[in-house]
Amino acid sequence: MIEIKNVDFQYKGSEEAGLHDVSLSIKDGETILLCGASGCGKTTITRLINGLIPHYYKGELSGSVTVSDRDIAQTELYDLASVVGTVFQNPRSQFFAVDTDGEITFGTENIGLPPAEICRRKAEVVNELELEALLEKSLFALSGGEKQKIACASVSALMPEIIILDEPSSNLDWKAIGELKNVIRKWKENGKTIIISEHRLWYLKDLVDRVVFLENGKIVHEWNKNEFSSLTSEELQQYGLRPIKLEEKYIREFGGEMFSPESRSSDTTFEKAVTIRDMYFTYKPQKYVLFRKKLTAESSDKYTISIPKLRLPQGSVTGLIGRNGAGKSTFLRCLCGLEKSCPVKLDIDNESISGKGILKKCYMVMQDVNHQLFTDSVEAEVLLSMKSEDKEYADKLIAELGLAGFENTHPMALSGGQKQRTAICSALAANAEILLFDEPTSGLDHRHMKIVGGLLRKLAERGKTVIVSTHDPELISLCCQYLMCLENGRIKYFRKV
């Protein structure tokens, strides 16, 4: 049993985020979905349950939180480890090992289980979650979705009574979301109490027992499963929630047809284009004595990315799609010059660009935006990206992306969705010719996803070349004119939407 009674919480150093008079009871074996706009308090509730508040995140807390007859304020985090397991929005933040096998068993080793029991639990979890293909791999070589699976396995191996998932589908492709759904179903069948904070709703509608809707740090509505499933599209939009039922075209595209082996004709008839040449890259270290060997088309089958030539339309938004691990993030990193061993060249307006010149033409919003937030305020972060500071324009961008009031807030004090929007603000302020977005709607609610889609369209209308890697069919329908599918680091097809 989880009992939250009359809780008020205010993060230290923040006036906006927090909870206000929140009361919530969760029965043993119940599956609860927490939903609402970014920054509404979903993650804060999960931190109350797993003890990160007040033991890690400091602030003003009143009211009481009881988990399995334990007063959270009086219980040390290590005493909660076997009771509450958490899969965070960014799985990298909870990794302690460097390889998949070590990460799966880390928790069980840390609490001192016998070696035989550790091996038994590992085998059981690997079989249950179908992780055989990910064993004996470096965590650094995994895609975002694959890391999420390992994070689920490491939590599952501890066999906690309560499992918390914070935006678990944010980095997953369609197939991986289906696998995640099966994992949650198995946990549910085993009697686990499950709390899920999520924006994508369609895959959970048959699993949840109750849905809790938050707004500005307050619980304003609750639905049971049947009530929630019967909400109309208009009602969901009023609450700012994403669809419960996806259109048939999304199911066809992302459910399998998009990746079918049938041939697709590439549409490269656009007038103005950015031409990419010689994009060859591998993560495997190369043997060299004095000089690094230049990658070429020879033995291209050994490369993680192998694209000899590709034309992309200028002044348009191209959606980059593909399975987890297909090479989408690596493609973007190579294109913007972050992978120094990649010999890529760009032809733009009859100018050939390579090396450091590419860094001046491109700007990338990373999948994990924590790696590119450097300053002590949102406004300073946006101003940092400008060639010449323009406070008025910076504040306009901040307001457009729903961050007004957070100008002086430290970026690390923001929710995941708010951090994402801060990074997008910085990209817009940079005014680069080629703008790359890696999962820009990860952690965003429906309203802010529409705002981001509209901004990407506006950028294209201003002549910018925009490439957006995404698993969100809603975002594609909002802003993409072209689709590029990547498979095993190769272009499978390029076509109009």
TrEMBL record:
Xref: PROSITE patterns: ABC_TRANSPORTER_2
GO cellular component, one term: ATP-binding cassette (ABC) transporter complex
Keywords annotated in UniProt: ATP-binding, Cell membrane, Membrane, Nucleotide-binding, Repeat, Translocase, Transport
Membrane topology annotation: Peripheral membrane protein
Domain of life, per lineage: Bacteria
Location relative to the cell: Cell membrane
Signal as UniProt keyword: no
Pfam families the record matches: ABC_tran
Residue ranges of domain ABC transporter in the record: 2-241, 274-497
One of the record's GO molecular function terms: ATP hydrolysis activity
InterPro entries with a match to the protein in the record: AAA+_ATPase, ABC_transporter-like_ATP-bd, ABC_transpr_CbiO/EcfA_su, ECF_ABC_transporter_ATP-bd, P-loop_NTPase
PANTHER family: ABC TRANSPORTER ATP-BINDING COMPONENT, HEAVY METAL TRANSPORTER
Family named by the database record: Belongs to the ABC transporter superfamily.
Role, per record: Probably part of an ABC transporter complex. Responsible for energy coupling to the transport system.
Protein name in UniProt: Energy-coupling factor transport system ATP-binding protein
